[in-house]
Amino acid sequence: MTLTWILSSLLLAQAPTIGKQEVIRPFRTGVVKAEIYDTRSAQPQIQKTWPWKGPITEGPYHAGANAFGVGKPSTVFVPPASSRERSVWAMSSTGFAGIAQTRYTPPDPTIAVGPNHIVEAVNASIAFYSKSGTLEFAVDLDNRGNPGFFEPVGAGSFVVDPKVLYDSEAGRFVVVAIEVYQPNTAWIDIAVSDDDNPHGIWYKYRTSAVVPVGSANYWVDYPSFGFDQDAYYTGGNLFRLNGSGNGTAGILFRVFKKAPMLSGDPVVFTDLRYGNSFSAQAGHHLGNSPAGYYASIGSSSSMRLYAIRNPAGTPTLVTTTVSIPGFSSPSRNSVPNLGGGGVDPLDGRVFNVSWREGRLYVAHPVVVNSAVKARWYQFNTNGWPDSGTPSLAQVGTVDPGSGIYTFFPALAENVLGDVGLVVARSSATEYVSMQMTSRTILDPLGTMGPLIQARVGDRGANGRWGDYYAIGVDPSDYTTFWAVGEYSDQAVNGWATWIQSLQVGEKILPTSFQVMRGSLVTGSAADLHANDGAYVEVEARRPTSVAEASAEIVVSGTALADNPRALQFVLEAATSGAPTLERIEFWNFDTNQWEVVAERNGTASDSVQSASVTSNAGRFIANGTLEVRARLGFHDRGVTFVAWGSRYDLGYWRLLR
User: Fold this and answer.
1) Which pTM was predicted?
2) Domains in the chain: ranges and CATH
3) If you average pLDDT over residues 500-517, what whole number do you get?
């Protein structure tokens, strides 16, 4: 492994002011080569070291918002205006047991969901599962395996705080973790799979995380991890490793240029530092974003947002604040549970950030009527930082009732605008459990549905918990949520993790299709049921009129109700024709006509479009038979027709009663 440092000037941030925008430039860049490793060479494939029967090591306490003077317990909480109940949509969920008690506590559970696999990581193990819960691969993250996951790049015996994600833009699994060894060594490790299957080749990088500030060196704790179309984003809180200086030095932001990492080439990464805040989390960006977003608590009444501009070139960091309802942060070990002492909700820091189509979601815990409650926000980025300013769109609190605590929230939005959320739940009369909930585009602002229990513990717990949960959207249908959380398990005499899926509403799969324009090359209705690389392919034909499509299919299915409150459609398709218009139409059984419900420019690679009808949706469902029809077409907008093809990878309806 070769590492090259290039040092430049560091611009220190000024004291935070509401709405003031600051720009921070890089203080150094680095270049690091990959180690290419094939997980299939690990023997045995399942090196399961849990449940651990030996001594348990407690991970370092991640001082954060409270230690930095943000959200002090004396702050008065102002409840958000919207706390109404909302309609209950059909929600279905299935789950299975994940990694259990390792040699560390807390577990720091995190997952990534791909087309066919789920990758889970904890302190300090990693595992690959099928979506039915079959364990297929397991090793430790450090050098205790044969080999350990990061051992091929030189990792030592302390590889912790993992984060994993599935980059749906590139079709890759990505893992990050940190190392620190007194008195002068620290690392950020990152690995990228070579495709959407975690079994096989990974490109692994080990990058120094010793950060010089003044006369001291600092290490990176509590790492964030996110992605967009251009980069992978990480970083964390800076704590003094050696030398003379303050105990903390703010936040490190590290930007990895994505493109070379997808082929295992040497990667350039860039470091930026913001000295006036703590515990920023990087966003998971679904769709093309104008910048890479992070968020942290700005004060007890503001959220600090960060944007990485030009991540594929010379990144700069832009930051501003947005006012939020005031809050008070939780205290350590302040969550009661049956048969145990106080469970630690950590503090009021941000745990999770997710972005889709201009909507930035952020979640953290607050104190409401002396109980810890998970609070979530939606900010509209409004083109910021290139233009406009971000604004608060809605805020909600997960409050199941008096004396019930919710904490460690994580949330994400799917392609239909549903928001899925996972939390821990506890009270003096119940064991800590993992719970999930959701909201749809029909729900009042600031509301979520009732909590659904994924898994409840069977023993009391004390002290460290979390330090985070995780949630993601399944790329096989772009709507199903998968999450991971923690519970306490007598069988392992410690903590265990649970992996859970959540589907909102009722899915209607096509049962048949007919080519209306063009000629069928290959495919069946079943090929439209999942994003799995099995396509319906249609060769375009010259239209006989301007209004006609050049390639078009009509799909049919059967609904489960005749008068829903919403009928939606998800389409993933591509075309080799340009320029083309990709259109979704529903058949109106009342007027016997097609109605356009969504359209956009056609794309050369597979991409997703959705349509939603939220008014009088029953007109698109046949009385008696409950048939639904959708017409999916590509319209040639060129001056002359040139032969081209189209393909449909995924297409289905979703019904909300």
Assistant:
1) 0.93
2) 3-504 (2.130.10), 507-656 (2.60.120.260)
3) 96
